[in-house]
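**Backbone shape codes:**
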Amino acid sequence: MAEKPTTEDPNSSTTPEPNAPIEALAWLATKSKVKLPEKVAELRRKLYQKAKQEPKFRFYALYDRIYRRDVLTAAWWIVLAKNKSPGIDGVTCRDILDASGGAAKYLDDLHELLKTKTYRADRVMRVYIEKPDGRLRPLGIPTMRDRIVQTATLLVLEAIFEADFLDTSYGFRPERRAEEALKAIRGHLDQGYREVYDADLKGYFDTIPHDQLMLALKMRITDRSVLALIEMWLKCEVVDTDKNGKKVTSRSENGTPQGGVISPLLSNVYLHWFERAFHAPNGPATWAKAKIVRYADDFVILARYQGIQLQRWIEQTLEGRFRLTINRDKTKIVKLNAIGSTLDFFRVYLPI
């Protein structure tokens, strides 16, 4: 049940200062190596502080922050810096710059669309890239316009959800790297947690249930306009090319396309609740003294002993409560006390 909203504005000067020194939150002032306008950085700091200090607070007035002109400008700078391939409409960053009125008019028009709630997401273009094992990974490429709006949304929501995410997760997070995940795993191994459930989720990004993802978002966000925006991106049409070269469109009740700006955050929000269940008083961090290290959808669960109860909890929780699919051909239990045993995490073999 949602808490009754307070009248305190998280963007007001009455919001308390954090316990941590402000310099410890330096990542809030930059995004993708782009320095944010000071007012945008301040907005992010205050949202983060509010979320950190009130873990049960649900944010009910965020939509107008997303279409703020300075937030949209910061989002444009980030999109421009990345200068990715165009989406289904073929419009590039250069096209936006060269059009009559340039980026300023483009952002003014986009601001008006969002403010009047007449913005509609464009179709997503499906492309495929080859994975290291030769299989193809599907990506969903949004248009530049949708990239800008998703980035603006990310600038606002990231500050809130980062306050919640646990130290056991590393992927797609500011100032956290794969090397730190590997260091954490090595630390657990050195402490004797040498039986490892090495998990592989089958098509995680394409199988996240939309209804449950929205419930996870509502644990922090009650602004209906923001939730509608996210649901619009989740359910928009995807344009693919079949084996005969014909364009085909589809929609899905599951998944958040890899390639979308907002997708990494959404994927972390969902698996965050698996980590929360893992660390709960009735979870295996308590009764099995187990440890978890997660990098996006790759994670390992380490224990001194991998018993049936622990394995059953992992599999029933992921496939039951979270409605995900474990790839049992790739998921394995590694006992590192056995001679010659190694753990392959993130294509790095441990222990080294």
Confidence is low (pLDDT under 50) at residues 1-22. The two ends are 48 Å apart (CA to CA).
